[in-house]
Write a structure and sequence with these properties.
Distance between the termini: 51 Å
Helix content: 10-25%
Number of strands: 7
Number of helices: 3
Number of domains: 1
Strand content: 25-35%
Radius of gyration: 18 Å
Largest sheet: 7 strands, antiparallel
Order of helices and strands: HEHEEEEEEH
Length: 140
């Protein structure tokens, strides 16, 4: 007597959810994994990749204010050298008000946007910001 695919999926769900659980100390979203290369290429397309990502990341990408970004520099991220760009912005709430400016670290692996670190105060310490109007021009 065989087990149906549906039963297997139901039985495996707790394991999959447990694998997703963990410490939220770094609060990051990763897309490309760890990327083992030590000499990382510069993320040449970061100015176009970041607005595209933020359009999906923000609940309401329209009306972002005070957007500034630091050029990618190499930083130690969990023991590996990665290019990191720091971003600060104020997002619009659903009632039309604005949040306090948020600071995020954008980590690049193999020259591509890999993840965003929400708790970025330490990794973005000393970042030199410049206006980032591309983020303020986002639409739905």
């Amino acid at each position: 007597m065989g087990i149906s695919a549906k039963r297997v999926a139901i039985l495996m769900l707790p394991l999959a959810l447990a694998a997703c659980a963990g410490s939220d100390d770094s609060r990051s979203i990763s897309f490309m994994g760890s990327g083992g290369a030590t000499n990382q290429p510069f993320p040449n397309n970061y100015r176009s990749e970041l607005p595209a990502f933020m359009k999906t990341y923000l609940n309401n990408p329209v009306g972002v204010h005070d957007a500034v970004m630091a050029e990618p520099v190499q930083r130690d991220v969990n023991g590996k050298m990665r290019f990191v760009s720091c971003l600060r912005f104020a997002a619009r709430e659903s009632d039309g008000s604005y949040r306090e400016p948020q600071e995020r670290a954008i980590v690049y692996v193999n020259g591509r946007l890999d993840r965003m670190i929400e708790k970025a105060a330490e990794i973005c310490a000393g970042a030199v910001y410049a206006p980032f109007p591309e983020l303020e021009k986002l639409t739905r």
